[in-house]
């Protein structure tokens, strides 16, 4: 018997509705045994989903070729209970939206539409959703996507952006501004961030995994030293480094070393309101406490990944198959 799958099509978390698609040979026996009404092809049927004597939910079920969509109430407990029930009934669970959906999870009239639908859960922002849904029409006009344009790929696969720099230059405060909310502990003491902190941030349409790292310095504190060593691996994995330096302090050997170590990074001169007459090298001037310069930094990050001021209806590639075809 071929495998049967349970796939959460909607993003995790609380919502009004959650859609779980079940596929494979176990679909009809499962619904016959546990759904209170006969499911019908192409029709929305409302009934009760039971596990033994317990009603898990009253979903709307739509049956189609080899699959069924169960439209559940979107509470996390309901979704988790149904997924665990499917697992106990022999369905293999496929996670989403961290990965593209398998081909069998969607019905599509063309290859390009199949790739749109399987990658739809990866569209974490409104801009990503608009650009992705515009692609069938864009490709249909006959214009060839540019191989060097990776903007849609980055919209669907959030790049890792590491914030690095010496201690007490305002990295965590700057990260909080980029998140638009408090995420890192801040204080006027070096070494406050004792480990790297990573979380998704929406930079005006571009989702990024923003990684705030501990200040880079020589230290006798074993815990802080271990944190700095661990953060080094995170920095190496980063697609972009934002190097934060103190505009109010003299440029020392450590700062020059960091600039040389990250030639492709974005240099940010924080505390620029205290810089006096000292000239800073090329970069973005910010005052993290007040938010001054943060919008410019957001635009610079978006520009690096091709998502700043671009035509959303232009054809772009976002899958390995498309990339190889264009090559």
> What pattern of helices and strands is seen along the backbone?
EEHEEEEEHEHHHHEHEEHEHEEHH
Largest beta sheet: what is the strand line-up?
Answer: 3-6-7-2-1-8
Give the tally of β-strands.
14
What's the total helix number? Answer: 11
Shape descriptor reads: elongated
Low-confidence stretches: 182-196, 215-220
Q: Termini distance?
A: 39 Å
- Provide the residue-averaged pLDDT: 84
What is the helix fraction of residues, given as a range? Answer: 25-40%
- Decide which structural class fits the backbone: alpha/beta
Could you tell me the radius of gyration in angstroms?
A: 25 Å
What proportion of the residues form beta strands (DSSP E)?
15-25%
Could you describe the largest sheet, including whether it forms a barrel?
6 strands, mixed
Question: Can you tag this structure with a few keywords?
Answer:
327 residues, alpha/beta, six-stranded mixed beta sheet, 14 strands, 21% strand, elongated
């Amino acid at each position: 018997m071929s495998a049967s799958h349970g796939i959460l099509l909607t993003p995790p978390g609380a919502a009004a509705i959650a859609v779980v698609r079940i596929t494979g040979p176990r679909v009809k026996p499962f619904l016959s045994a546990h759904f209170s009404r006969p499911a019908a092809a192409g029709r929305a049927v409302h009934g009760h989903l039971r596990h033994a004597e317990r009603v898990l939910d009253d979903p709307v079920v739509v049956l189609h070729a080899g699959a069924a969509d169960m439209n559940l109430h979107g509470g996390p407990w309901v979704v988790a209970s149904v997924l665990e029930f499917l697992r106990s009934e022999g369905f293999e669970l496929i996670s989403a939206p961290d990965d593209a959906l398998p081909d069998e999870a969607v019905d599509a009239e063309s290859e390009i539409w199949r790739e749109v639908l399987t990658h739809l859960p990866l569209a974490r922002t409104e801009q990503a959703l608009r650009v992705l849904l515009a692609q069938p029409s864009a490709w249909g006009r006959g214009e060839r996507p540019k191989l060097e344009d990776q903007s849609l790929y980055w919209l669907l696969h959030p790049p890792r952006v590491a914030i690095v720099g010496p201690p007490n230059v305002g990295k965590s405060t700057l990260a909080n501004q980029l998140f638009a909310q408090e995420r890192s502990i801040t204080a006027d003491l070096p070494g406050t961030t004792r480990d790297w902190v990573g979380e998704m941030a929406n930079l005006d349409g571009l989702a990024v995994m923003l990684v705030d790292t501990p200040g880079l310095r020589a230290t006798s504190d074993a815990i802080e030293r271990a944190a700095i060593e661990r953060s080094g691996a995170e920095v190496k994995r980063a697609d972009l480094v934002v190097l934060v330096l103190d505009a109010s302090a003299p440029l020392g050997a450590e700062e020059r070393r960091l600039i040389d170590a990250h030639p492709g990074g974005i240099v940010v001169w924080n505390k620029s309101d205290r810089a006096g007459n000292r000239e800073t090298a090329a970069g973005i001037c910010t005052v993290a406490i007040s938010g001054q310069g943060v919008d410019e930094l957001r635009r610079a990050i978006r520009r690096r990944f091709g998502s700043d001021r671009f035509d959303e209806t232009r054809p772009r590639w976002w899958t390995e198959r498309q990339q190889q075809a264009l090559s």
